[in-house]
Amino acid sequence: MKRIRNAVAGLLGTGALLAFGVMVASSATASTTCDGSSCNGLDPTQVYSSIDGQRCDVGAYTPTGASVSTPQGFVELRYGPHCHANWARISSSSAGTWFWVQNWNGDSQQYYVPSGFTSAYTNMVNGYPVARAGDAGGHTDWF
């Protein structure tokens, strides 16, 4: 009888581990991934590269000359090399300031600096075509 109880307990334990393993696997695969055009409208801090699994904002940079100082703030065109995507970032700004990013294909994202903040970023656009970023006071060149 003791052997039957141990066998049942072992099977239940294995079943629990398998169920846990499936839960972990499904939550790991639930992460959003993208590359280029599939990144349009997604948050670079919440999405991962479908190529190498890195978060889209990891290793992101502002290309030389891809920033502009305007009366509304300092706007940068950001590029995420893992996801091949662009987004705009604004700093030294004020709540309610509108800013945007646009690529040559016409994809665009816009955002307003939230209340209580002086900086923010837009969602992404496809980074394979050239892009630019700006606000009501001006914009970068195409990069």
Radius of gyration: 22 Å
Q: If you average the pLDDT, what whole number results?
A: 85
Would you count the extended β strands for me?
Answer: 11
Q: Helix and strand string, N-terminal first?
A: HEEEEEEEEEEE
Content-based structural category: alpha+beta
Number of helices: 1
Largest sheet: 5 strands, antiparallel
Total individual domains: 2
Spatial gap, N to C terminus: 75 Å
Shape assignment? globular
Low-confidence stretches: 1-30
Q: What fraction, in percent, of the residue positions are helical?
A: 10-25%
Strand content: 25-35%
Structural features, described:
This protein has 143 residues and is α+β, with helices and mostly antiparallel strands. 33% of the residues are buried. The radius of gyration is 22 Å and the shape is globular. The longest helix has 28 residues. Strands 3, 4, 5, 8 and 9 form a five-stranded antiparallel sheet that branches. A four-stranded antiparallel sheet has the order 7-6-10-11, with no helix packed on it. A two-stranded parallel ribbon has the order 1-2. The protein has one helix and eleven strands. It starts with a helix and ends with a strand. The N terminus is likely disordered. A hairpin with a 2-residue loop joins β3 and β4. It has two domains: 30 residues; 107 residues, no CATH class.
